[in-house]
């Protein structure tokens, strides 16, 4: 098999990275934009030792699950890889992805419950991070999303998965850039000014916090004037911040953020609790789907009698605060100090007395204490937990661990370790937070009682 060879294949299933899997003489081929039950003519784009990659050149017989995507840019933009697949079938495929990684990486055969669908499959994305560049000759600002597997920006004027006001804000910035002599960032040369537009939209009250990420702190005065024009234009923009990021990096936000107009947060509501979410604090991107997860975790904790709970990787202590009414005491641990400040404000707003906050690394915190918790909630970033953190968690947990994860592969790896240490998996529940992508959130309940 070599690059540019063409084959006719049947797509068997979806890989955990959202590509279709076909086999040619028992060699696995990952095919972009393919759906199980498609019969396709494909062209090989890359040959590796154990697998190859390919693209579709003709759909010979479409899968019965193919639909017309609601976004006209779907096949150009890299954001919604699966939007051409019927939503219910997307969920079935995600369930199969979770089962596959649990079996292959985790050696776990616990059944995966049917994913809870996202309450909304359009305009559900409430955190928008839009890269900015400019055209070479006319110097027009480009703002949108990247083409699949590239850093080439597609100038997207209408994105149906984000609230409409976000399109308007981004377009205002595009239109006014010339007047304010604003240049877009050039990633290769590390030149130009505006790198990203980050918008947080509140599902609770429709307000937006806009953050302009710029390449140098010397740009502050210039962008302050621009920020003010943006703030005055949109009634629903409740604050504009400037973030400085002069590093040659893919990380979007730099270390320093200044609020130049209005407030440096939006308010969000989860169940009956109000939170302040800042420019650089973690908050779930799909708040309505997140609410289902919070309710599920709270119901699980309610099964214990007035437990003492550890909320590790706490962000703004959203889990800790939401479950606090059914707990004797909660300890929330988070390493980002700005998130802990917002958590502290949320405690006051919601008049909560039984949540203790620690701005610290989870493992370091656990190593520094003797206290035991009835239940531990682990909600780490995509890379999952370290072995040290998992071992400390077992040591400090009496009853159960509730592991919330946005990455099935690292989740399976960590579950394997927990099981090897004597824990047992009670249930695996998927939630669709990231519609039209291969990503899926999971909540796993793990019993730590020794068998
Ligand atoms: C997936 S988010 C979860 C946030 C929160 N549980 C929520 O639902 O809003 C992971 C959080 O872990 C924090 N974090 C990452 N590494 C950490 C560590 N070693 N110790 C404590 N917090 C950490 C990140 O700053 C981030 O807020």
| Tally of DSSP β-strands | 23
**Which small compounds were modeled alongside the protein?**
S-adenosylmethionine
CATH class annotation of the largest domain: Alpha Beta
Shape type: globular
Chain oligomer state: single chain
Task: Report helical residue fraction.
Answer: 10-25%
Q: How are strands sequenced across the largest beta sheet?
A: 7-22-23-21-20-17-18-19
The largest sheet is: 8 strands, mixed
Cα-to-Cα separation, first versus last residue: 51 Å
What count of structural domains?
Answer: 3
Characterize the structure shown:
The chain has 9 helices and 23 strands. It is an alpha/beta fold. It folds into 3 domains: 6-66, OB fold (Dihydrolipoamide Acetyltransferase, E2P) (Beta Barrel); 95-119 and 286-447, 3-Layer(aba) Sandwich (Rossmann fold), CATH 3.40.50; 127-269, OB fold (Dihydrolipoamide Acetyltransferase, E2P). The strands form 4 sheets. An 8-stranded mixed beta sheet has the order 7-22-23-21-20-17-18-19, sandwiched between helices. A 7-stranded mixed beta sheet has the order 10-9-8-11-12-13-14, covered by helices on one side. Strands 1-5-6-4-3-2 form a 6-stranded mixed beta sheet. The model has no long low-confidence stretch (mean pLDDT 95). Bound molecules: S-adenosylmethionine. S-adenosylmethionine is lined by residues 282-284, 313-315, 318-319, 333-336, 339, 361-362, 379-381.
């Amino acid at each position: 098999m070599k690059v540019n060879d063409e084959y006719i294949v049947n797509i068997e299933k979806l890989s955990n990275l959202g590509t279709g899997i076909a086999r040619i003489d028992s060699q696995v081929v990952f095919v972009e934009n393919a759906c199980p039950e498609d019969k396709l003519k494909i062209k090989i784009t890359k040959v590796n030792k154990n697998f190859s990659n390919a693209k579709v050149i003709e759909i010979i017989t479409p899968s019965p699950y193919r639909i017309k995507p609601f976004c006209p840019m779907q096949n150009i933009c890299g954001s919604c890889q699966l939007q051409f697949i019927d939503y219910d079938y997307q969920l079935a495929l995600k369930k199969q992805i979770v089962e596959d990684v649990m079996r292959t990486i985790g050696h776990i055969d616990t059944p995966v419950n049917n994913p809870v669908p996202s309450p909304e499959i359009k305009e559900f994305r409430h955190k928008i991070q839009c890269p900015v560049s400019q055209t070479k000759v006319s110097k027009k600002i480009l703002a949108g999303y990247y083409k699949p597997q590239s850093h080439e920006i597609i100038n997207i004027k209408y994105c149906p998965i984000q609230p409409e006001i976000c399109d308007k804000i981004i377009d205002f910035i595009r239109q006014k850039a010339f007047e304010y002599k604003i240049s877009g960032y050039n990633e290769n040369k590390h030149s130009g000014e505006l790198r990203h537009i980050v918008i947080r939209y509140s599902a609770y009250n429709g307000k937006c916090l806009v953050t302009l990420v710029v390449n140098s702190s010397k740009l502050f005065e210039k962008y302050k004037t621009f920020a003010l024009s943006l703030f005055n234009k949109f009634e629903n923009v409740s604050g504009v911040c400037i973030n400085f990021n002069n590093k040659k990096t893919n990380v979007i936000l730099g270390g320093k953020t200044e609020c130049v107009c209005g407030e440096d947060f939006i308010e969000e509501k989860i169940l009956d609790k109000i939170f302040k979410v800042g420019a650089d604090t973690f908050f779930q991107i799909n708040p309505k789907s997140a609410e289902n997860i919070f309710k599920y975790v709270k119901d699980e904790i309610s099964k214990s009698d007035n437990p003492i709970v550890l909320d590790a990787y706490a962000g703004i202590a959203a889990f800790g605060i939401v479950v606090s009414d059914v707990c004797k005491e909660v300890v929330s641990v988070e390493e980002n100090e700005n998130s802990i400040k917002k958590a502290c404000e949320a405690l006051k707003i919601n008049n909560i007395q039984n949540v203790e906050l620690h701005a610290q690394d989870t493992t370091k915190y656990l190593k520094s204490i003797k206290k035991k918790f009835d239940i531990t909630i682990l909600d780490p970033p995509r890379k999952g937990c370290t072995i040290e953190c998992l071992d400390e968690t077992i040591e400090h947990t009496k009853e159960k661990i509730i592991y919330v994860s946005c990455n099935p592969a690292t989740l399976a790896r960590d579950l394997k370790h927990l099981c090897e240490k004597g824990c047992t998996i009670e249930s695996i529940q998927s939630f669709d937070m990231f519609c039209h992508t291969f990503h899926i959130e999971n909540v796993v309940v793990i019993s730590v009682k020794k068998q």
